[in-house]
Amino acid sequence: MVMPVDLASRIAASARMTSSPMSPEIDDWLRGKRRQPFESADITLEELTRSPGWRFAPDTGNLHHESGRFFTVEGLHVTAERGHPAEWWQPILVQRDIAILGIIAKEFNGVLHFLLQAKMEPGNIDMVQLSPTVQATSSNYTQVHRGRAARYVEYFTQPGRGRVLVDTLQSEQGAWFHHKRNRNIVIEVTGDVPVHHDFCWLTLGQIHRLLHRPNVVNMDTRTVVGCLPGTVSEPVGVHTMTEILSWFTGHKSRQHLSARLVPLNRLVGWRRDDERIARDDGGAFSIVGVSVRAQTREVTSWKQPLLAPHGLTLAGLVVRRMNGRLHALVRAEALPGYRDTIELGPTVRFMMTDHPTTPAEHRPEFLDHLLSAPRHSVRYDVVQSEEGGRFRHARTRYLIVEATDDFPLSAPPDFAWISVEQLHALQRHSYYLGIEARTLLLCLDSVSGPDTDFGFPVR
């Protein structure tokens, strides 16, 4: 897709601006928001289900809300014809309504700015992070919770409010969500937008700078901002777009991964007690309960379950210059929660708590290359939080490494070298790039600027 010159150039101009008179002093402003009396306390599942709201279904054991909305915790049985392991059971979050992740854009002094919110989520590290203007499921913005309406939601639910810059459905974590998708949308307005004190205008350059700090720009902002167009030219690389799409479609048609929802109380190798739902051997995550108080939210207090990872995930990307253009080595990654089984993932996505117990032959390809990369080849290395509304303190180490001279040019069958411009073009469409790949692409943009060569030496 070739984007209008005016839009791409205006986005590039916003990326060049790393300060703005329209923005607060962001450190002081965010520090003040984090000093508000927020509370997110761990509670037992027994306490969660004793209060109004959440219940375990007597027949399936699935954890659900009495309203029938929000999300459920169900079971999943997965089998794979190749790979390791060949079979597993796990709980998974099921949320059938589509969330709006929406950002309002407006031009000030000739520069595009984006309206972000200092939002409290119960699973956030540091409690408050910068979220989109609107981050709400249909259960939230139709006020099933009987709380206040989400601010600015009318810009995204009522037509004709502004010029649409981005509008696409994207997945979330395919390892933890079943068929979850969100509407990623950016709307540019020209009229006056009254700014609530929990919101602020930032340029794209300011957002890029904040990406180099942990736990500031939340996952939902990263995925929406990452969908902004990055080029006005037809994307090219060592493979044509037709070749890339054929390779991707071939993998989807040949993938033999079966995932079916099963009752939560029939999961093999998992147990539920008064405290939590956990795997017998500890495993990679558990399901826990939290009690929340937040005066700035539409509902000021509630209880809910969260998925709590037990360690750090690595999402690593190997990049190199080929034919004068920067390319990334991405993988056709099969995850049980994806709607179409496969999306493009990073070079490596791996739960690092599994590293000591995973035999070398079962570890991901290129993991050792990423972990042992010399410092001079590391272009980005920051631990970021994942979504705090469903996950408790989920953290991912996002790592971008430039390939060393001895790194193979040829890619294994599940991998492909795709140029940065081509990845940006694919990201404009639904279900091509997984959420970790989308974040890494945005982080790669933040390493550079619109007028630089991605911070990488030309070879």
From TrEMBL:
Organism this protein belongs to: Streptosporangium oxazolinicum
- The name under which this protein is listed is NDP-hexose 2,3-dehydratase family protein
Superkingdom of the source species: Bacteria
Q: Which residues form the dTDP-4-dehydro-6-deoxy-alpha-D-glucopyranose 2,3-dehydratase domain?
A: 25-228, 242-444
Q: Name one Pfam family in it.
A: Hexose_dehydrat
Instruction: Spell out the Gene3D superfamilies in the cross-references.
Output: EvaA sugar 2,3-dehydratase subunit
